[in-house]
UniProtKB/TrEMBL annotation:
Keywords: Cytoplasm, Initiation factor, Protein biosynthesis. Component of the eukaryotic translation initiation factor 3 (eIF-3) complex, which is involved in protein synthesis of a specialized repertoire of mRNAs and, together with other initiation factors, stimulates binding of mRNA and methionyl-tRNAi to the 40S ribosome. The eIF-3 complex specifically targets and initiates translation of a subset of mRNAs involved in cell proliferation. Belongs to the eIF-3 subunit K family. It is found in: Cytoplasm. The keyword Cell division does not apply. It comes from the Eukaryota. The lineage of its organism: Eukaryota, Sar, Stramenopiles, Oomycota, Saprolegniomycetes. This is Eukaryotic translation initiation factor 3 subunit K.
Length: 223
């Protein structure tokens, strides 16, 4: 699972270099290379610093960085965004992706992937090649964590076959994954632990009735 970090508090040389430059001048062009090196560290360590990555995309815009230079970094950041769903990081990063970058096939696929995941069209998501995303360690596992979370918010009991389709896994792999989240097996279904979102709640009706209207109603009923 992707671990969120922040360069202000992370104990690494690359994060410290970013912090030092941000403290000195957060808009200096030299910060770009420092943020890129820090992004490489995030890829290698399975972490994500949303603030730092958004800063990198903004600096690319400010300094009109060539598209060919931006492209691999933008792809990595979008992949990291998918891995942190349901965080708004992917949405924010996608707003900073230029039209020139959007013409790239990998970027187009990643933006489409984000749309499919956020609208819970999970089987369609798994049909995308997403070659660039597969290069990032832990990508599939992070996405499946998000899918399990989404299902758990909408179901208290769910068919095992349905879950397997959403996760794109065989039955044994599904069972291992969901039982690790506390789900239990009940025949051909899974029972999901109760949470604030998957339980039926009584509807509450509130009507604003003037006191004079209430008196008129009582008067009619008492005749």
């Amino acid at each position: 699972m992707t671990r969120a970090v922040n360069f202000e508090s992370t104990h690494s040389a690359k994060a410290a270099a970013v912090k030092k430059q941000v403290d000195a001048d957060p808009l200096d062009e030299s910060l770009i290379s420092l943020l890129e090196a820090y992004l490489d560290e995030q890829i290698a360590t399975g972490t994500v610093d949303e603030e730092a990555n958004m800063m990198l995309l903004k600096l690319y815009t400010i300094y009109s960085t060539p598209v060919d230079h931006q492209l691999p970094r933008a792809i990595q950041i979008l992949v990291k965004g998918l891995m942190t769903l349901p965080s708004n990081f992917f949405l924010g990063a996608s707003y900073l992706v230029s039209e020139s970058l959007r013409k790239n096939k990998d970027v187009t696929e990643l933006l489409q992937a984000g749309s499919l995941l956020q609208t819970c069209l999970f089987p369609a998501f798994w049909q995308l090649p997403l070659v660039s995303a597969k290069k990032v360690p832990g990508f599939d596992a992070a996405v499946r964590e998000y899918i399990v979370s989404a299902i758990s918010r909408s179901h208290d009991v769910v068919a095992a076959a349905f879950v397997a389709q959403q996760l794109h896994l065989d039955s044994k792999e599904v069972e291992a994954l969901v039982t690790a989240h506390g789900w239990t097996i009940q025949g051909t279904s899974f029972v999901v632990p109760a949470n604030a979102d998957n339980q039926m709640r009584p509807k509450k009706f509130k009507e604003d009735i003037a006191f004079t209207d209430l008196l008129d109603t009582i008067n009619v009923l008492s005749r």
